[in-house]
Design goal:
It contains 8 helices and 22 strands. The strands form 4 sheets. It has a 6-stranded antiparallel barrel with strand order 1-2-3-6-5-4. Strands 8-9-10-14-12-11 form a 6-stranded antiparallel beta barrel. Strands 16, 17, 18, 19, 20 and 21 form a 6-stranded antiparallel β-sheet that branches. The chain is flat.
Protein backbone atom coordinates (compact mmCIF):
# COMPACT_ATOMS: atom_id res chain seq x y z
CA UNK A 1 0.00 0.00 0.00
CA UNK A 2 1.36 3.46 -0.92
CA UNK A 3 1.53 6.09 1.73
CA UNK A 4 1.51 9.90 1.25
CA UNK A 5 4.57 11.49 2.85
CA UNK A 6 3.84 14.00 5.56
CA UNK A 7 5.01 17.58 5.48
CA UNK A 8 7.53 18.75 8.06
CA UNK A 9 4.85 20.68 9.90
CA UNK A 10 2.70 17.59 10.27
CA UNK A 11 5.44 15.40 11.67
CA UNK A 12 5.17 14.56 15.30
CA UNK A 13 8.42 14.49 17.23
CA UNK A 14 9.48 10.98 18.17
CA UNK A 15 11.17 10.48 21.45
CA UNK A 16 14.30 8.27 21.22
CA UNK A 17 15.00 5.82 24.02
CA UNK A 18 17.68 6.56 26.57
CA UNK A 19 21.22 5.45 25.73
CA UNK A 20 22.10 2.01 26.99
CA UNK A 21 24.78 2.24 29.66
CA UNK A 22 28.01 0.29 29.31
CA UNK A 23 27.69 -3.36 30.30
CA UNK A 24 30.32 -5.75 31.43
CA UNK A 25 31.42 -8.80 29.46
CA UNK A 26 32.30 -9.30 25.83
CA UNK A 27 29.27 -7.38 24.48
CA UNK A 28 29.96 -3.88 23.11
CA UNK A 29 27.79 -1.05 24.56
CA UNK A 30 25.17 0.40 22.27
CA UNK A 31 24.76 4.14 22.93
CA UNK A 32 23.18 7.13 21.23
CA UNK A 33 25.83 9.83 21.01
CA UNK A 34 24.88 13.48 20.82
CA UNK A 35 27.43 16.08 19.83
CA UNK A 36 26.10 19.48 21.02
CA UNK A 37 27.26 22.65 19.38
CA UNK A 38 29.42 24.83 21.52
CA UNK A 39 27.85 28.09 22.71
CA UNK A 40 29.60 31.25 23.86
CA UNK A 41 28.28 30.95 27.43
CA UNK A 42 30.32 28.90 29.87
CA UNK A 43 28.92 25.53 30.66
CA UNK A 44 29.13 24.08 34.07
CA UNK A 45 29.46 20.32 34.15
CA UNK A 46 27.33 18.50 36.60
CA UNK A 47 28.08 14.95 37.41
CA UNK A 48 25.63 12.40 36.22
CA UNK A 49 25.10 9.51 38.52
CA UNK A 50 25.99 6.22 36.90
CA UNK A 51 24.10 3.14 37.80
CA UNK A 52 26.06 -0.03 38.41
CA UNK A 53 26.61 -2.10 35.27
CA UNK A 54 25.25 -5.13 36.99
CA UNK A 55 21.82 -3.46 37.39
CA UNK A 56 21.45 -2.73 33.72
CA UNK A 57 19.29 -5.41 32.16
CA UNK A 58 20.74 -7.18 29.15
CA UNK A 59 19.11 -6.30 25.85
CA UNK A 60 16.33 -8.59 24.90
CA UNK A 61 16.42 -10.70 21.80
CA UNK A 62 14.07 -9.36 19.14
CA UNK A 63 10.76 -11.13 18.83
CA UNK A 64 8.44 -11.49 15.84
CA UNK A 65 6.04 -8.94 17.40
CA UNK A 66 8.81 -6.45 17.93
CA UNK A 67 10.12 -6.87 14.39
CA UNK A 68 6.61 -6.35 13.06
CA UNK A 69 6.21 -3.22 15.20
CA UNK A 70 9.51 -1.87 13.95
CA UNK A 71 8.64 -2.52 10.34
CA UNK A 72 5.36 -0.52 10.73
CA UNK A 73 6.95 2.43 12.55
CA UNK A 74 7.05 5.76 10.64
CA UNK A 75 10.26 6.61 8.85
CA UNK A 76 11.87 9.86 9.90
CA UNK A 77 12.86 12.28 7.17
CA UNK A 78 16.54 12.63 6.54
CA UNK A 79 18.01 15.77 8.13
CA UNK A 80 21.38 17.38 7.63
CA UNK A 81 24.32 15.78 9.38
CA UNK A 82 25.42 17.15 12.70
CA UNK A 83 28.90 17.78 11.22
CA UNK A 84 27.43 20.35 8.79
CA UNK A 85 25.54 22.44 11.37
CA UNK A 86 26.76 25.96 11.82
CA UNK A 87 27.65 27.77 15.01
CA UNK A 88 24.37 29.70 14.77
CA UNK A 89 22.35 26.56 15.61
CA UNK A 90 20.79 26.39 19.07
CA UNK A 91 23.07 25.03 21.77
CA UNK A 92 22.07 22.25 24.05
CA UNK A 93 21.62 23.30 27.66
CA UNK A 94 22.78 20.67 30.10
CA UNK A 95 20.40 19.94 32.97
CA UNK A 96 20.31 17.87 36.09
CA UNK A 97 17.90 15.48 34.52
CA UNK A 98 17.97 14.10 31.07
CA UNK A 99 14.96 15.37 29.19
CA UNK A 100 13.54 13.80 26.07
CA UNK A 101 15.50 14.71 23.01
CA UNK A 102 13.85 14.90 19.68
CA UNK A 103 15.63 14.06 16.47
CA UNK A 104 15.04 17.45 14.74
CA UNK A 105 16.55 19.37 17.65
CA UNK A 106 19.94 17.73 17.12
CA UNK A 107 19.75 17.67 13.33
CA UNK A 108 21.09 14.08 13.29
CA UNK A 109 20.00 11.19 11.15
CA UNK A 110 18.68 8.06 12.70
CA UNK A 111 21.18 5.25 13.13
CA UNK A 112 21.50 3.04 10.04
CA UNK A 113 19.89 -0.36 10.06
CA UNK A 114 23.19 -2.08 9.26
CA UNK A 115 25.84 -2.73 11.85
CA UNK A 116 28.33 0.19 12.00
CA UNK A 117 31.10 -2.20 13.07
CA UNK A 118 31.63 -5.79 11.95
CA UNK A 119 32.18 -6.81 15.55
CA UNK A 120 29.16 -5.03 17.10
CA UNK A 121 25.66 -6.52 17.04
CA UNK A 122 23.24 -4.97 14.54
CA UNK A 123 20.82 -2.28 15.79
CA UNK A 124 17.72 -0.70 14.38
CA UNK A 125 17.08 3.02 14.06
CA UNK A 126 15.42 2.89 17.47
CA UNK A 127 18.25 1.14 19.25
CA UNK A 128 16.65 -2.32 19.18
CA UNK A 129 18.31 -5.47 17.88
CA UNK A 130 17.50 -6.63 14.40
CA UNK A 131 18.02 -9.92 12.66
CA UNK A 132 19.34 -9.01 9.19
CA UNK A 133 20.23 -11.58 6.56
CA UNK A 134 23.81 -12.80 6.90
CA UNK A 135 26.22 -11.06 4.58
CA UNK A 136 29.49 -12.35 3.12
CA UNK A 137 32.32 -11.43 5.48
CA UNK A 138 35.14 -9.53 3.81
CA UNK A 139 37.78 -11.92 5.15
CA UNK A 140 36.06 -15.09 3.90
CA UNK A 141 38.56 -17.04 1.72
CA UNK A 142 37.81 -17.41 -1.96
CA UNK A 143 36.98 -20.87 -3.15
CA UNK A 144 38.84 -22.49 -6.10
CA UNK A 145 36.76 -22.37 -9.28
CA UNK A 146 35.55 -25.72 -10.56
CA UNK A 147 37.45 -25.28 -13.84
CA UNK A 148 40.74 -24.85 -11.98
CA UNK A 149 40.02 -27.97 -9.92
CA UNK A 150 39.49 -30.00 -13.09
CA UNK A 151 42.77 -28.71 -14.58
CA UNK A 152 44.66 -29.62 -11.41
CA UNK A 153 43.17 -33.14 -11.40
CA UNK A 154 44.08 -33.65 -15.07
CA UNK A 155 47.64 -32.45 -14.42
CA UNK A 156 47.99 -34.86 -11.48
CA UNK A 157 46.70 -37.78 -13.55
CA UNK A 158 49.15 -36.93 -16.37
CA UNK A 159 52.10 -36.85 -13.95
CA UNK A 160 51.13 -40.22 -12.43
CA UNK A 161 50.69 -41.79 -15.89
CA UNK A 162 54.09 -40.52 -17.04
CA UNK A 163 55.76 -41.86 -13.88
CA UNK A 164 54.19 -45.30 -14.38
CA UNK A 165 55.33 -45.30 -18.02
CA UNK A 166 58.93 -44.49 -16.98
CA UNK A 167 58.93 -47.29 -14.38
CA UNK A 168 57.57 -49.85 -16.88
CA UNK A 169 60.07 -48.68 -19.49
CA UNK A 170 62.98 -49.09 -17.03
CA UNK A 171 61.82 -52.55 -16.07
CA UNK A 172 61.42 -53.46 -19.76
CA UNK A 173 64.94 -52.25 -20.49
CA UNK A 174 66.45 -54.34 -17.74
CA UNK A 175 68.36 -53.54 -14.60
CA UNK A 176 71.71 -55.02 -15.51
CA UNK A 177 74.81 -52.93 -16.04
CA UNK A 178 74.44 -51.03 -19.27
CA UNK A 179 70.63 -51.42 -19.21
CA UNK A 180 70.70 -54.28 -21.76
CA UNK A 181 68.58 -57.41 -21.99
CA UNK A 182 69.32 -59.95 -24.74
CA UNK A 183 66.67 -59.64 -27.42
CA UNK A 184 66.21 -55.85 -27.12
CA UNK A 185 67.78 -55.41 -30.55
CA UNK A 186 66.57 -57.67 -33.33
CA UNK A 187 68.29 -55.95 -36.25
CA UNK A 188 72.06 -55.55 -36.19
CA UNK A 189 74.05 -53.59 -38.73
CA UNK A 190 77.56 -55.04 -38.62
CA UNK A 191 78.87 -54.74 -42.13
CA UNK A 192 81.84 -56.10 -44.01
CA UNK A 193 84.04 -54.37 -46.56
CA UNK A 194 85.98 -55.47 -49.57
CA UNK A 195 89.64 -54.61 -49.76
CA UNK A 196 89.89 -50.86 -50.38
CA UNK A 197 91.66 -49.41 -53.39
CA UNK A 198 92.41 -45.92 -52.01
CA UNK A 199 95.49 -44.70 -50.17
CA UNK A 200 95.41 -43.13 -46.72
CA UNK A 201 97.76 -42.10 -43.94
CA UNK A 202 100.23 -44.82 -42.86
CA UNK A 203 99.82 -46.53 -46.23
CA UNK A 204 102.51 -47.58 -48.64
CA UNK A 205 102.55 -47.05 -52.38
CA UNK A 206 100.38 -50.18 -52.83
CA UNK A 207 97.52 -48.82 -50.70
CA UNK A 208 98.28 -51.07 -47.73
CA UNK A 209 98.85 -49.99 -44.17
CA UNK A 210 102.30 -50.16 -42.72
CA UNK A 211 102.66 -51.94 -39.38
CA UNK A 212 102.66 -48.53 -37.71
CA UNK A 213 99.45 -47.71 -39.53
CA UNK A 214 97.82 -50.96 -38.35
CA UNK A 215 98.75 -50.20 -34.74
CA UNK A 216 97.44 -46.63 -34.95
CA UNK A 217 94.23 -47.53 -36.81
CA UNK A 218 93.11 -50.86 -35.31
CA UNK A 219 94.45 -50.84 -31.75
CA UNK A 220 91.72 -48.40 -30.46
CA UNK A 221 89.20 -51.16 -31.34
CA UNK A 222 90.90 -53.80 -29.16
CA UNK A 223 89.93 -54.20 -25.48
CA UNK A 224 91.16 -56.25 -22.54
CA UNK A 225 88.69 -58.42 -20.60
CA UNK A 226 88.94 -59.66 -17.02
CA UNK A 227 86.55 -62.40 -15.89
CA UNK A 228 85.51 -62.71 -12.25
CA UNK A 229 83.67 -65.32 -10.23
CA UNK A 230 82.64 -64.30 -6.73
CA UNK A 231 85.02 -61.32 -6.94
CA UNK A 232 87.96 -63.56 -7.84
CA UNK A 233 89.75 -63.28 -11.18
CA UNK A 234 89.43 -66.55 -13.08
CA UNK A 235 90.68 -65.48 -16.50
CA UNK A 236 91.47 -62.74 -18.96
CA UNK A 237 91.49 -62.24 -22.68
CA UNK A 238 90.98 -59.81 -25.51
CA UNK A 239 87.96 -58.50 -27.39
CA UNK A 240 87.05 -56.56 -30.54
CA UNK A 241 84.65 -53.62 -30.52
CA UNK A 242 81.89 -54.16 -33.07
CA UNK A 243 79.71 -51.07 -32.70
CA UNK A 244 79.72 -47.56 -31.28
CA UNK A 245 77.05 -48.54 -28.71
CA UNK A 246 79.33 -51.03 -26.97
CA UNK A 247 78.95 -54.54 -28.43
CA UNK A 248 82.17 -56.56 -28.54
CA UNK A 249 83.14 -60.09 -29.49
CA UNK A 250 85.55 -62.44 -27.74
CA UNK A 251 86.07 -66.19 -27.22
CA UNK A 252 83.54 -68.21 -25.25
CA UNK A 253 86.27 -69.84 -23.16
CA UNK A 254 87.26 -66.34 -21.94
CA UNK A 255 83.87 -65.70 -20.25
CA UNK A 256 82.57 -69.16 -19.32
CA UNK A 257 82.38 -69.59 -15.56
CA UNK A 258 82.33 -65.86 -14.85
CA UNK A 259 79.52 -63.79 -13.36
CA UNK A 260 81.05 -60.33 -13.75
CA UNK A 261 83.40 -58.71 -16.24
CA UNK A 262 85.67 -55.68 -16.39
CA UNK A 263 86.61 -54.24 -19.79
CA UNK A 264 89.64 -51.96 -20.21
CA UNK A 265 89.56 -49.72 -23.28
CA UNK A 266 92.47 -48.43 -25.34
CA UNK A 267 92.26 -45.05 -23.56
CA UNK A 268 92.71 -46.89 -20.23
CA UNK A 269 89.11 -46.46 -19.11
CA UNK A 270 87.71 -49.52 -17.31
CA UNK A 271 83.98 -50.21 -17.49
CA UNK A 272 81.69 -53.04 -16.43
CA UNK A 273 80.51 -55.53 -19.02
CA UNK A 274 77.65 -58.00 -19.22
CA UNK A 275 77.61 -61.25 -21.13
CA UNK A 276 74.95 -61.08 -23.85
CA UNK A 277 75.49 -64.72 -24.80
CA UNK A 278 78.07 -67.31 -25.79
CA UNK A 279 78.28 -70.43 -27.92
CA UNK A 280 80.72 -73.11 -26.82
CA UNK A 281 80.56 -74.99 -30.11
CA UNK A 282 82.03 -72.08 -32.05
CA UNK A 283 83.94 -70.59 -29.08
CA UNK A 284 82.31 -67.18 -29.66
CA UNK A 285 80.85 -64.84 -27.05
CA UNK A 286 79.39 -61.31 -27.10
CA UNK A 287 79.68 -58.76 -24.29
CA UNK A 288 78.01 -55.36 -23.93
CA UNK A 289 79.50 -52.28 -22.28
CA UNK A 290 78.05 -48.84 -21.61
CA UNK A 291 80.61 -46.29 -22.78
CA UNK A 292 80.95 -43.47 -25.27
CA UNK A 293 83.60 -42.40 -27.80
CA UNK A 294 84.16 -45.98 -28.94
CA UNK A 295 85.97 -46.93 -32.16
CA UNK A 296 84.45 -50.05 -33.76
CA UNK A 297 86.66 -52.25 -35.90
CA UNK A 298 86.24 -52.65 -39.65
CA UNK A 299 85.30 -56.21 -40.62
CA UNK A 300 86.67 -57.65 -43.84
CA UNK A 301 85.79 -60.62 -46.02
CA UNK A 302 87.85 -63.65 -44.97
CA UNK A 303 87.04 -65.40 -48.27
CA UNK A 304 89.34 -62.88 -49.98
CA UNK A 305 92.30 -63.98 -47.83
CA UNK A 306 95.12 -65.66 -49.76
CA UNK A 307 97.85 -68.02 -48.66
CA UNK A 308 101.03 -66.18 -47.70
CA UNK A 309 99.21 -62.85 -47.11
CA UNK A 310 100.81 -60.70 -44.43
CA UNK A 311 98.71 -60.27 -41.28
CA UNK A 312 98.93 -58.82 -37.77
CA UNK A 313 97.61 -60.23 -34.50
CA UNK A 314 96.46 -57.66 -31.92
CA UNK A 315 95.58 -58.43 -28.31
CA UNK A 316 96.77 -58.57 -24.72
CA UNK A 317 98.96 -61.66 -24.26
CA UNK A 318 99.95 -62.45 -20.67
CA UNK A 319 98.39 -59.19 -19.53
CA UNK A 320 100.65 -57.12 -21.80
CA UNK A 321 98.06 -54.59 -22.95
CA UNK A 322 98.09 -53.40 -26.54
CA UNK A 323 100.47 -55.92 -28.11
CA UNK A 324 100.89 -56.48 -31.85
CA UNK A 325 102.69 -59.30 -33.67
CA UNK A 326 103.13 -59.98 -37.37
CA UNK A 327 103.11 -63.06 -39.56
CA UNK A 328 101.55 -64.58 -42.63
CA UNK A 329 98.60 -66.79 -43.47
CA UNK A 330 100.06 -70.28 -43.21
CA UNK A 331 96.92 -72.20 -44.08
CA UNK A 332 93.30 -71.73 -45.15
CA UNK A 333 90.11 -73.51 -44.06
CA UNK A 334 91.68 -75.43 -41.19
CA UNK A 335 88.99 -77.37 -39.29
CA UNK A 336 89.64 -76.84 -35.61
CA UNK A 337 87.40 -77.83 -32.73
CA UNK A 338 86.76 -75.51 -29.84
CA UNK A 339 87.37 -76.37 -26.22
CA UNK A 340 84.06 -78.20 -25.95
CA UNK A 341 85.23 -80.51 -28.77
CA UNK A 342 81.76 -80.71 -30.31
CA UNK A 343 82.07 -78.48 -33.33
CA UNK A 344 84.69 -77.95 -36.00
CA UNK A 345 85.29 -74.32 -36.94
CA UNK A 346 86.64 -72.93 -40.18
CA UNK A 347 89.92 -71.31 -39.14
CA UNK A 348 92.86 -69.41 -40.60
CA UNK A 349 96.28 -70.75 -39.68
CA UNK A 350 99.01 -68.18 -38.99
CA UNK A 351 102.54 -68.01 -37.63
CA UNK A 352 101.86 -64.70 -35.89
CA UNK A 353 102.50 -65.11 -32.16
CA UNK A 354 99.25 -65.99 -30.35
CA UNK A 355 99.67 -66.58 -26.63
CA UNK A 356 97.28 -66.91 -23.68
CA UNK A 357 95.60 -63.52 -23.39
CA UNK A 358 95.41 -63.11 -27.17
CA UNK A 359 92.21 -65.19 -27.23
CA UNK A 360 89.38 -63.06 -28.55
CA UNK A 361 91.73 -60.60 -30.23
CA UNK A 362 91.87 -59.62 -33.89
CA UNK A 363 93.71 -61.04 -36.86
CA UNK A 364 93.80 -58.23 -39.44
CA UNK A 365 95.13 -57.82 -42.96
CA UNK A 366 97.22 -54.86 -44.04
CA UNK A 367 94.08 -53.01 -45.08
CA UNK A 368 93.15 -52.71 -41.41
CA UNK A 369 90.25 -55.17 -41.72
CA UNK A 370 89.46 -57.90 -39.18
CA UNK A 371 89.49 -61.23 -41.03
CA UNK A 372 89.60 -63.53 -38.00
CA UNK A 373 89.11 -63.83 -34.23
CA UNK A 374 92.23 -65.27 -32.65
CA UNK A 375 91.23 -68.34 -30.66
CA UNK A 376 93.07 -71.37 -29.39
CA UNK A 377 96.68 -72.25 -29.97
CA UNK A 378 97.32 -75.70 -31.35
CA UNK A 379 99.17 -77.85 -28.80
CA UNK A 380 100.47 -81.39 -28.59
CA UNK A 381 97.70 -83.89 -28.04
CA UNK A 382 94.97 -81.41 -28.93
CA UNK A 383 93.78 -77.95 -28.01
CA UNK A 384 94.16 -76.12 -24.70
CA UNK A 385 96.91 -78.34 -23.31
CA UNK A 386 100.31 -77.59 -21.90
CA UNK A 387 103.00 -78.07 -24.58
CA UNK A 388 102.32 -75.88 -27.59
CA UNK A 389 103.84 -76.15 -30.99
CA UNK A 390 105.57 -72.90 -31.82
CA UNK A 391 104.41 -70.80 -34.74
CA UNK A 392 101.08 -72.54 -35.05
CA UNK A 393 98.10 -70.34 -34.27
CA UNK A 394 94.49 -70.22 -35.39
CA UNK A 395 91.80 -67.60 -35.85
CA UNK A 396 88.09 -68.24 -36.49
CA UNK A 397 87.20 -66.75 -39.87
CA UNK A 398 85.05 -63.63 -39.58
CA UNK A 399 82.68 -65.01 -42.22
CA UNK A 400 81.87 -67.99 -40.02
CA UNK A 401 81.75 -65.96 -36.83
CA UNK A 402 79.46 -63.15 -38.07
CA UNK A 403 76.16 -65.15 -38.22
CA UNK A 404 76.84 -66.46 -34.71
CA UNK A 405 77.54 -62.94 -33.45
CA UNK A 406 74.28 -61.62 -34.88
CA UNK A 407 72.22 -64.39 -33.28
CA UNK A 408 73.86 -63.86 -29.90
CA UNK A 409 73.11 -60.13 -30.02
CA UNK A 410 69.51 -60.58 -31.15
CA UNK A 411 68.43 -63.42 -28.83
CA UNK A 412 71.29 -64.37 -26.51
CA UNK A 413 71.83 -67.86 -27.94
CA UNK A 414 72.33 -69.72 -31.20
CA UNK A 415 69.30 -71.45 -32.66
CA UNK A 416 69.40 -75.13 -33.60
CA UNK A 417 71.57 -76.30 -30.74
CA UNK A 418 70.41 -79.53 -29.06
CA UNK A 419 71.28 -81.17 -25.79
CA UNK A 420 71.32 -84.90 -25.08
CA UNK A 421 71.91 -84.58 -21.35
CA UNK A 422 75.07 -86.68 -20.88
CA UNK A 423 78.72 -86.20 -19.95
CA UNK A 424 81.12 -88.68 -21.45
CA UNK A 425 84.68 -89.71 -22.35
CA UNK A 426 85.76 -90.44 -25.89
CA UNK A 427 86.78 -94.02 -26.60
CA UNK A 428 90.45 -93.10 -26.98
CA UNK A 429 90.82 -91.95 -23.37
CA UNK A 430 88.36 -94.19 -21.51
CA UNK A 431 90.94 -96.55 -20.02
CA UNK A 432 93.34 -93.74 -19.05
CA UNK A 433 90.56 -91.62 -17.51
CA UNK A 434 88.69 -94.40 -15.64
CA UNK A 435 91.38 -97.03 -14.95
CA UNK A 436 89.16 -99.69 -16.53
CA UNK A 437 90.41 -102.51 -18.71
CA UNK A 438 87.94 -102.73 -21.54
CA UNK A 439 87.06 -105.94 -23.31
CA UNK A 440 88.30 -106.10 -26.88
CA UNK A 441 84.72 -105.81 -28.06
CA UNK A 442 84.50 -102.22 -26.70
CA UNK A 443 88.02 -101.00 -27.33
CA UNK A 444 88.05 -97.94 -29.58
CA UNK A 445 84.28 -98.17 -29.72
CA UNK A 446 81.55 -96.17 -28.11
CA UNK A 447 81.56 -93.28 -25.64
CA UNK A 448 81.71 -93.87 -21.88
CA UNK A 449 78.89 -92.21 -19.88
CA UNK A 450 80.30 -90.26 -16.91
CA UNK A 451 77.07 -88.63 -15.72
CA UNK A 452 73.46 -88.05 -16.76
CA UNK A 453 71.64 -84.73 -16.32
CA UNK A 454 68.65 -85.27 -14.06
CA UNK A 455 66.57 -82.60 -15.83
CA UNK A 456 66.96 -84.29 -19.24
CA UNK A 457 64.50 -86.90 -20.61
CA UNK A 458 67.38 -89.37 -21.02
CA UNK A 459 67.42 -89.67 -17.22
CA UNK A 460 64.11 -91.56 -17.49
CA UNK A 461 65.57 -94.23 -19.76
CA UNK A 462 67.48 -97.42 -18.86
CA UNK A 463 70.84 -95.71 -19.44
CA UNK A 464 73.06 -95.38 -16.35
CA UNK A 465 76.42 -93.85 -15.55
CA UNK A 466 79.13 -96.39 -16.48
CA UNK A 467 77.29 -97.57 -19.58
CA UNK A 468 78.37 -97.04 -23.20
CA UNK A 469 76.60 -95.59 -26.24
CA UNK A 470 78.00 -97.34 -29.29
CA UNK A 471 75.54 -96.11 -31.94
CA UNK A 472 73.11 -93.24 -32.40
CA UNK A 473 70.64 -93.14 -35.26
CA UNK A 474 72.52 -96.07 -36.82
CA UNK A 475 75.83 -94.16 -36.86
CA UNK A 476 78.73 -95.62 -34.78
CA UNK A 477 79.92 -93.07 -32.22
CA UNK A 478 83.35 -93.06 -30.60
CA UNK A 479 84.04 -89.34 -30.09
CA UNK A 480 82.60 -85.82 -30.25
CA UNK A 481 82.82 -85.64 -34.02
CA UNK A 482 80.78 -88.86 -34.43
CA UNK A 483 78.15 -87.67 -31.97
CA UNK A 484 77.90 -84.32 -33.72
CA UNK A 485 77.45 -86.07 -37.07
CA UNK A 486 74.69 -88.28 -35.62
CA UNK A 487 72.82 -85.20 -34.35
CA UNK A 488 73.27 -83.14 -37.48
CA UNK A 489 70.11 -81.27 -38.56
CA UNK A 490 68.31 -82.33 -35.38
CA UNK A 491 66.25 -79.81 -33.39
CA UNK A 492 64.86 -79.66 -29.89
CA UNK A 493 61.90 -82.02 -29.57
CA UNK A 494 63.27 -84.57 -32.05
CA UNK A 495 63.80 -88.18 -30.98
CA UNK A 496 66.81 -90.37 -31.74
CA UNK A 497 67.54 -94.05 -31.11
CA UNK A 498 70.69 -95.08 -29.29
CA UNK A 499 72.26 -98.56 -28.97
CA UNK A 500 73.88 -98.96 -25.57
CA UNK A 501 76.18 -101.48 -23.87
CA UNK A 502 76.65 -102.41 -20.22
CA UNK A 503 79.43 -104.47 -18.67
CA UNK A 504 78.13 -106.77 -15.90
CA UNK A 505 79.95 -107.95 -12.80
CA UNK A 506 80.84 -111.10 -14.67
CA UNK A 507 82.30 -108.86 -17.41
CA UNK A 508 79.55 -110.00 -19.73
CA UNK A 509 78.37 -107.28 -22.16
CA UNK A 510 74.64 -106.63 -22.44
CA UNK A 511 73.24 -104.53 -25.29
CA UNK A 512 69.97 -102.58 -25.23
CA UNK A 513 68.32 -99.67 -27.08
CA UNK A 514 66.74 -96.47 -25.80
CA UNK A 515 64.77 -93.58 -27.28
CA UNK A 516 66.26 -90.15 -26.49
CA UNK A 517 64.18 -86.98 -26.62
CA UNK A 518 66.47 -84.11 -27.55
CA UNK A 519 66.26 -80.75 -25.80
CA UNK A 520 66.78 -77.33 -27.36
CA UNK A 521 69.86 -75.75 -25.81
CA UNK A 522 69.84 -72.02 -25.09
CA UNK A 523 72.64 -72.10 -22.54
CA UNK A 524 75.45 -72.06 -25.08
CA UNK A 525 77.16 -74.96 -23.32
CA UNK A 526 76.40 -77.65 -25.91
Amino acid sequence: MNETPMSPEEQTPVTLPDPIPTVSGDSQPITQTVEPTVSEEPITEKPVAEEPASEVPAPEEPTDALLKEQSSAPILPEVPSAETTSSEDSAVEPSDQQSPITAPAFQQTAPPLTNPSPMAPPVSQYGNYTNPAPALQPNEPNTVPMQSRILLILLFVAIVAFSVFCIVWDIRKGSQSGGYVAGDITEIHIGQQHKPETNDAYMDENGKYTIEGIAATVMPSIVEIYTYSDSKTIGSGSGILLSEDGYLVTNAHVVIGGNSFAVTLHDERTVDGICVGYDSKTDIAVLKINADHLTPAVLGNSDETVLGEQVCALGNPAGLTGSISTGIISGLHRKVRAESNTFEMDCLQTDAAISPGNSGGALVNLYGQVIGITSSKYVAGGLFEASPYEGLGFAITINEALPIIKELISQGYVSGRVRVGIQFYESSIIEAATGLTLPDELKEKGIYIMAIDEDAPIADTALEAGDFIVEMNGIPVADYADLDAALKDKRGGDTVTARCARIGKDEKITYFEIEILLLEDTSGDY
